[in-house]
Amino acid sequence: MKTTKACLFDLDGVIVDTAVYHFQAWRRLANELGFDFTEHQNEQLKGISRMESLELILKWGNVSLSEEEKIDWATRKNAWYLDLVMQMTPNEVLKGVPEFLKSLRENGIKIALGSASKNSRLILEKINMIDYFDAIIDGNNITKGKPDPQVFLLGAEATNCKPEECVVFEDALAGVQAGKAGGMKVVGVGDASVLTEADFVISSFEEMTIDRLF
Ligand code: B16
Ligand code: MG
Description:
CATH architecture of the largest domain: 3-Layer(aba) Sandwich
Structural class: alpha/beta
Mean pLDDT: 97
CATH topology of the largest domain: Rossmann fold
Bound molecules: 1,6-di-O-phosphono-beta-D-glucopyranose, magnesium ion
Strand content: 5-15%
Order of helices and strands: EHHHHHEHEHEHEE
Number of strands: 6
Low-confidence stretches: none
Strand order of the largest sheet: 3-2-1-4-5-6
CATH superfamily of the largest domain: HAD superfamily/HAD-like
CATH class of the largest domain: Alpha Beta
Shape: globular
Radius of gyration: 17 Å
């Protein structure tokens, strides 16, 4: 019989909205390089790694840089982003998330993070959520980004669960595809017209209950 023993959570867009801070920092980078960057473009960077995001932004701005310059600008962007992250508070946790994670704990279901971010531990500390997690798999542990299932397969392994015993929560299409490619049930968080490959979609964790995991 199939059962759910672990839940694997994406970070940005699922636990907390860091996209607004990424946007400010990427926009500053674009502006300093002499072009602008829109919120619509920022949407396309959700779930995408830092260096892949930079490549896309430079393409949009028609700017070409050496590898060394790219690393330099990515480092600068991350410092601007971290200045904003340092001001984050627990009030920013998305609605219904603490209640749902608490009920997972009470029901003995393991909790892991599966994020592309290299800053995930700091963010979870700032929003006071780190203690809920049994395992953290993030941009520091992976070699392949979503839609590759690596991040979630490592999450399953870290919680000693088989993929079919895991449920993934994702707000980005590439993340939904990663969970499905890993053989997991996937709950989309956000827009059902975008997250069409998810098993089902919630618009907020206020709609989520333990019985929907099985
Ligand atoms: P960092 P997720 C992703 O987080 C963000 O959605 C994406 O915009 C960002 O580029 C990526 O993390 C890397 O973040 O620069 O902090 O390493 O949705 O996978 O939790
Ligand atoms: Mg996300």
